[in-house]
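Quick check before the chapter quiz. The format below is the same one you will see on the exam, so make sure you can read both the input and the output lines.
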Amino acid sequence: MPHIELRDLRNHDRDAAFQAVSASTSAWPRAAFADREAFDAWAADDKVDAHVVVEDGSVVGVAAALDVDGDREILLAVSPSAHGDAPTEAVRLLTAREAERPLYACVSADDEPSHAVLARIGFVEHGRDGDDVVYVLPPTLE
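Here is the expected output.
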């Protein structure tokens, strides 16, 4: 497996990050942008903690955590050119950075690869929101 890491989204990463998000076939509703201007506005929002997914030194996606109606939610968009394990590793790294639990994710009901990624990390279905499935990573007992 290639080396996957997350790093903070920097200005010089934005072109590659937007291209990766645009190429992504995942259907995480909060990772859909009409154009580069919308992506830049989203990335500049104080409620968004955006990272680039880096595979062997190249930007292949975006992983972020953001506040949505008082809850912490994650999202992911990875280019189809990325290694098959890149999405799972990116979500694993992101959830390790996000200490707050419960942690939520929302994906399109027909996005089977994203459902599988979330299940591998320990997310469970929490409910439905129209055509989307809401997942939760519940708190753990220590």
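If your answer matched, good. Strands lie at 4-8, 48-55, 58-68, 71-78, 103-108, 124-129, 132-137.
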